[in-house]
């Protein structure tokens, strides 16, 4: 076995350790994009630890009904004498180089901040999916795309076939109406979402709009927002009942322009991965706050509508919504730009966001970090 210049052996295997997760099924689901990428493309064994989690993960990967309930019950039993942890949004991986274990964390939390100091200190390398360039992170923290944990290789191939879908709508926006974190439903998050729908309803052209209220928000206090959507002619419903992923994607793929807003905590929504994969022309309400390793660029990968919440969740001005309508109307008439951005996004996904590319990026970053560091510092 060949050694690196500092005596570090080549990568032998990768272990995905779910032992510390409060809800291991949820941690597995959230990290599934990266786990699958490494499992299929790292060319080394990728194992789940402990063995009980590996068995449940196989059932979960096969979508066995109720598997996550059984897994959750088992986890509660196994951890009954241990202190509670809230690490479901952080995947903990051990990269085994010979006898050296390097601890790699993948933080897929929506928010910009780091919430688990213990895992951060334990890690030799810490990937942050929604890293903001405006936040000062420790040197070991590096950015990573926000990989959509619901996407399997089969679903990715299906999304790629949608690149050739005939465009029957000028504008499509199907979106969940969400509340800003820590606030009640009557806040800027809901208000901004509803204002977006009201404004988009005024765009001239063939539109396909749908507002989805989470069932947890199905309260009488939201009736005023539903009434406003009714007045604007925007369809809405409670929950995604009757809409599976393929129905959602088929509607999105039929759009010349797909509109997108940030996800919870102003993250880059998992929907971005879907749209990039299907080669959509994306207009966002505002440029993303997080930055991926290969940044998404304005007028290359998206058009900025200039109408988004501030970093502190402050509302945009009323005039911003009016200017957004004008900008979308102009883009509808600019077929060259629409085609240009759509083509760029297909290429972006294939080159930077597809599972082989993500596996290569994680492995290269780890190898570069670990071969530069003295071998004896590994596994601190």
Classify the helix fraction into a percent range: 25-40%
The H/E string reads EHHEHHEEHEEHEHEHEHEHEEHHH
Counting helices, strands and paired strands, the structural category is alpha/beta
The radius of gyration over CA amounts to 22 Å
Principal-axes shape call: globular
The overall pLDDT average reads 90
Describe the structure.
With 380 residues, the protein is an alpha/beta fold. It has 2 domains: 11-149 and 355-377, no CATH class; 153-353, Glycogen Phosphorylase B (Rossmann fold), CATH 3.40.50.2000. It has helices spanning 24-30, 32-41, 51-61, 67-78, 117-122, 153-161, 188-200, 223-232, 245-253, 271-277, 318-332, 335-353, 355-372; strands at residues 11-17, 46-49, 90-97, 100-107, 125-128, 141-143, 169-176, 207-213, 236-238, 255-260, 282-284, 303-304. Strands 2-1-3-4-5-6 form a 6-stranded mixed beta sheet. Strands 9-8-7-10-11-12 form a 6-stranded parallel beta sheet, with helices on both faces. Strand 8, helix 8 and strand 9 (236-238) form a beta-alpha-beta unit. The longest helix is centred in the C-terminal third of the chain and has 19 residues, at 335-353. The chain is globular. The two termini are 24 Å apart.
């Amino acid at each position: 076995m060949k050694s690196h210049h500092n005596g570090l052996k080549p990568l032998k295997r990768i272990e995905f350790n779910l032992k510390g997760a409060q809800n291991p099924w949820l941690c597995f689901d959230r990290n599934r994009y990266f786990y699958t990428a490494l499992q299929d493309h790292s060319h080394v064994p990728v194992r789940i630890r402990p063995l009980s989690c590996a068995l449940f993960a196989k059932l979960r990967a096969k979508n066995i009904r109720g598997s996550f309930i059984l897994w959750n019950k088992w986890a509660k039993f196994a951890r009954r004498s241990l202190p509670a942890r809230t690490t479901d949004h952080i995947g903990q991986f051990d990269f085994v180089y010979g006898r050296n274990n390097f601890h790699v964390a993948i933080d897929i939390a929506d928010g910009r901040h780091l919430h688990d100091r213990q895992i951060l200190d334990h890690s030799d390398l810490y990937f942050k999916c929604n890293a903001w360039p405006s936040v000062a992170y420790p040197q070991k923290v590096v950015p990573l795309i926000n990989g959509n944990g619901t996407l399997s290789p089969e679903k990715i191939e299906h999304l790629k076939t949608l690149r050739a879908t005939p465009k029957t709508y000028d504008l499509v926006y199907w979106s969940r109406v969400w509340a800003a974190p820590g606030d009640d439903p009557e806040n800027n998050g809901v208000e901004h979402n509803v204002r977006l729908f009201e404004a988009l309803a005024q765009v001239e052209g063939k539109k396909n709009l749908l507002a989805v209220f989470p069932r947890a928000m199905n309260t009488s206090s939201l009736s005023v927002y539903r009434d406003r959507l009714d007045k604007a002619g925007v369809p809405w419903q409670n929950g995604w009942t009757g809409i599976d992923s393929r129905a959602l994607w088929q509607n999105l793929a039929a759009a010349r322009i797909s509109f997108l807003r940030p996800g919870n905590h102003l993250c880059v929504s998992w929907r971005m991965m879907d749209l990039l994969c299907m080669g959509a022309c994306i207009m966002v309400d505002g440029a993303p706050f997080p930055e991926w390793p290969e940044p998404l660029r304005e007028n290359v990968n998206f058009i900025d509508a200039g109408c988004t919440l501030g970093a502190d969740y402050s509302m945009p001005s009323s005039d911003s919504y009016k200017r957004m309508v004008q900008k979308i109307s102009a883009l509808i008439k600019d077929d060259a730009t629409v085609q240009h951005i759509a083509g760029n996004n297909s290429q972006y996904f294939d080159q930077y966001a597809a599972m082989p590319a993500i596996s290569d990026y994680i492995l290269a970053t780890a190898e570069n970090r670990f071969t530069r560091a003295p071998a004896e510092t590994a596994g601190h």
